Amino acid sequence: KNEVEQSPQNLTAQEGEFITINCSYSVGISALHWLQQHPGGGIVSLFMLSSGKKKHGRLIATINIQEKHSSLHITASHPRDSAVYICAVAIIQGAQKLVFGQGTRLTINP
Amino acid sequence: DTGVSQDPRHKITKRGQNVTFRCDPISEHNRLYWYRQTLGQGPEFLTYFQNEAQLEKSRLLSDRFSAERPKGSFSTLEIQRTEQGDSAMYLCASSPRRDTEAFFGQGTRLTVV
């Protein structure tokens, strides 16, 4: 079993829909990151969370440390939100390396 | 601050050749990471530098792989005797200290033919 599991793996929605991507993890972490990856490879950090909830524009991220679960929500989705969204956890020991989920490929149709 | 820079962006090489990639982290970021991402998968950790010291290496990093970070600034990742299984995106990330956001480069896409 992977240490970080994301669902769904693929998600297609219509413009304007409310989007939820889920992430569960099984290891001790110092923080959880939500990342966005566009075709071509570049990764952009959206959120870093260690507790509670954060909001940037139409994006909201929550984390429940006790349940080892996080969600990324997109309100009023737009075709430009189409990308791969990756959950990654920073391992609490040592290098604080990131362990990544497989990613969720999101497609928003106009 | 120009972000994390990786060079080259793309590399096609023949099996058995050696390749070297470069990563320039954000200035004054003392933590530098290399990750590898194969098609359809999330990235996997390869190695970590704190300043010039390589403090952690993944078992994915076989003896054909070597990484350096002389003087604690830019880093290089060399793959010797490349194999088709080395084809992947190689990502570099840096951060200024513990418990902070990671900043990623655009990656180097390696294709071994």
Tags for this entry?
heterodimer; A: about 110 residues; mainly beta; 5-stranded antiparallel sheet; 11 strands; globular; B: about 110 residues; 4-stranded antiparallel sheet; about 0% helix; about 50% strand
What topology emerges from the helices and strands here?
The complex is a heterodimer of chains A (110) and B (113).
Chain A: E1 4-7, E2 10-14, E3 19-25, E4 29-37, E5 43-49, E6 52-56, E7 59-64, E8 69-74, E9 83-91, E10 98-100, E11 104-109
Parallel strand pairs in A: 2-11
Antiparallel strand pairs in A: 1-3, 3-8, 4-5, 4-9, 6-7, 7-8, 9-10, 9-11
Chain B: E1 5-7, E2 10-13, E3 19-24, E4 31-37, E5 44-50, E6 53-57, E7 65-68, E8 75-79, E9 88-95, E10 103-104, E11 108-112
Short description:
Chain A is mostly beta strands. In chain A, 0% of the residues lie in helices and 61% in strands. Chain A contains no helices and 11 strands.
Notes on the structure:
The complex is a heterodimer of chains A (110) and B (113). With 110 residues, chain A is mainly β. Chain A is built from no helices and eleven strands. In chain A, the strands form two sheets. In chain A, strands 2, 4, 5, 9, 10 and 11 form a six-stranded mixed beta sheet that branches. Chain A has a five-stranded antiparallel beta sheet with strand order 1-3-8-7-6, with no helix packed on it. In chain A, β9 and β10 (98-100) form a beta hairpin. By secondary structure, chain B is mostly beta strands. Chain B contains no helices and eleven strands. In chain B, the strands form two sheets. In chain B, strands 2, 4, 5, 6, 9, 10 and 11 form a seven-stranded mixed beta sheet that branches. Chain B has a four-stranded antiparallel beta sheet with strand order 1-3-8-7, with no helix packed on it. In chain B, β5 and β6 (53-57) form a beta hairpin. The interface between A and B is medium-sized, with 26 and 28 residues.
